[in-house]
User: Fold these one by one.
Assistant:
Number 1:
Amino acid sequence: MQPHEIKQDTKLCTILGYNAQTGYSRKYFNKVLKHNGINATAIALNITDEHFDFTMTSVSSSKVDKMIIEQEFQAKAVSYCDWLDSTSSREGRVDFIEVVDGKVMGYCLLDEAKALFSQPQFIDEQIIFVTKMMILAHRWFDAQIEVDDIPLLIGDR
């Protein structure tokens, strides 16, 4: 979605990373939304290490209530969460956060993504990654989770 396409009724979330604007999270998350015909988009917040602390300590009092964390900050984000799901605790990283009643909740979708496949040990990291974006799009914006659509989403369409 281009900036001129964002309207008053467009639903938003945020992606935090070094290159969040051009990273894979935004690319695939927005592809899932578009594929499902959902009027929503991920707004990128490009930051450096020196701005990470300020960003994460401010998020609970900001307007941001859903944020995808790019890989470079996933482990670091754990210490800024008020609560972690069991997968985040085990893996020591968060894929995304949600702010609920001023509390930062951290989640890792690895187990949930793998559970969608009968033999997850044969699924590569890119497929797991795109599956996570589908799960998030479903969680936040009611997108369909269709693992059979992953090859279409990975393709350069």
Number 2:
Amino acid sequence: MKEETYSLDTILATFTKTKKDSAKKRLIFDQTPLNGIGAKWIIAFFISLPVMLYIGIFNPTMFDMLGIAQAIIFFVVFLSMVMILVIALTFINNNKVLRQVTPSWNNSFPEVDLKLALASGGTPYKDFFKHYSEAVKLGLKGEALKTHLAQAFKVMQEENADLYDAIASARSGRR
């Protein structure tokens, strides 16, 4: 199966939502730029699950068969299953998007691990979204955006040199 090559703008559109002059990381990655299911549809599905569960348990037929106590217990138990389903589907969606765009990302930034750039914790690239927001504010796209981010990654690597070196040595030690 041939892997599709995505532009940097497309890759960043899957992970971020831009409003005015800022870019923020999405909780649920958007597959629309990759010709997939949009994050808005996934969120709508997630919101509809508890509503459908409520309708399924508290309709007159089921409610008469179960009674108030059992209906509430079933609702709470099934709602916990729905929450687990939402977390699992979010994880699957986000990993699918990561798998799809990582080869294209590696063509643009081979020295930068995409997962580290998107991570919320302490990584050498913890300011990635701040630098990307600056690029959005400047209206950069295409090659200008790639150049701006490449310089930003170098700056972040220099600012966090100790952490970057520790991660690089840990990776080379595993191989």
